[in-house]
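Thread title: Can someone regenerate the structure for this chain?

I was given the following input by a collaborator and told the matching structure tokens would be attached. They weren't. Posting the sequence so someone can regenerate them.
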Amino acid sequence: MARICEATERYGLALMTTYRVGQVAELLGVSADTVRRWVDDGRFGSRPEGGERLIEGAELARFLTETAPASDVPPVLESARNRFPGVVTRVQKDGLVAVVHIQAGPHRVTSLMTREAADDLGIEPGDLAVAVVKSTNVVVEVPRPE
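Best answer:
Regenerated them for you:
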């Protein structure tokens, strides 16, 4: 899914997650043409690489945070065991606890976990993640680095 910048290992730079236009379209539930128009309109930036437009995860997280619906009330009730693929928009770490916010399409999912778990996931704003909901618990999954 998301690409990890190769310069991370070579030069010790901070991890940078990027998404192709089609991936952003799938995450947002819109067409790739819509994402291209949004980039062209300046809603969020992209950079060319190998003939593709790549959108940085942090830029996507900013866009999702700014355009999230005002209401946190879902339009319908949903059953347990749902999976919400989305983009991490915020990670708050304090003492032993971490709070992870994920924008999954029109849904904002918040997970409370141990700081150690968040550190082990290496999760940062802009990263692809899946919120797995079972009963009252939310488990966050991220793709393994390639």
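The helical segments are 7-11, 21-28, 32-40, 57-67, 115-121.
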